[in-house]
Amino acid sequence: MYWFLLFLAVAAVWLSVLALLAKKVWGQAKALTRELVAAQSKLEAAQSTAGSGQTHRGEHVPA
User: Fold this and answer.
1) Can you tell me the distance from the alpha carbon of 18 to that of 4, in angstroms, rounded to the nearest whole number?
2) How far is residue 57's CA from residue 63's CA, in Å, rounded to a whole number?
């Protein structure tokens, strides 16, 4: 009986450590996703303002 309770205690400690690590990784992933979305929107805004006077590759500009 003693060994079983010891096993349960060790398993509970490991599960709590894994839960804390998962929470930390989840927070970092959310922050990284937020930064990527912000960078993508800034890039799209810059391309839309700068792209109005540019030609696309493959188009011929009359001389």
Assistant:
1) 21
2) 16
Query: In sequence order, what are the residues at sequence separation of 6 or more whose Cβ sits closer than 8 angstroms to the Cβ of residue 2?
Result: none
Q: Output Rg (C-alpha) for the chain, integer angstroms.
A: 27
Query: Looking up tokens 């922050």, which residue turns up?
Result: 31
**Contact by Cβ (8 Å): 61, 55:** yes
Q: Are 44 and 50 in contact (CB under 8 A)?
A: no
Residue-by-residue DSSP string for 8-34: HHHHHHHHHHHHHHHHHHHHHHHHHHH
Chain segment 6-61, per-residue pLDDT in tens: 999 999 999 999 999 999 999 999 999 999 999 999 999 999 988 765 555 655 65
